[in-house]
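User: quick one, sequence for these tokens?
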């Protein structure tokens, strides 16, 4: 049982240490952007996981996390709009 506790404590410390790093915001932005035009990509899991660390450990900064996730979702939605806009130039000609 001591081995299991050591492993879980090590993983927990690794996750908290990673959440304290500034590159985690870039990860959130990329995940939310990709989720905007490729819905199977799980950005919600990343954001919710980091939000739970905010409550439990106090990291990362919640305001920066919200802003970065919103900016990534906005960017991803605009990419999806551009893809759809470019793919459907004139739908009437497509079926005739």
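Assistant:
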């Amino acid at each position: 049982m001591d081995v299991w506790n050591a492993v879980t404590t090590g993983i927990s410390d690794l996750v908290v240490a990673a959440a304290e790093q500034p590159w985690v915001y870039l990860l959130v932005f990329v995940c939310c952007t990709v989720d905007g035009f490729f819905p199977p990509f799980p950005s919600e899991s990343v954001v919710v996981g980091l939000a739970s660390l905010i409550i439990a450990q106090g990291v990362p900064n919640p305001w920066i996390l919200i802003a970065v996730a919103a900016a990534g979702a906005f960017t991803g939605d605009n990419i999806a709009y551009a893809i759809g806009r470019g793919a459907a130039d004139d739908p009437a000609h497509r079926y005739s």
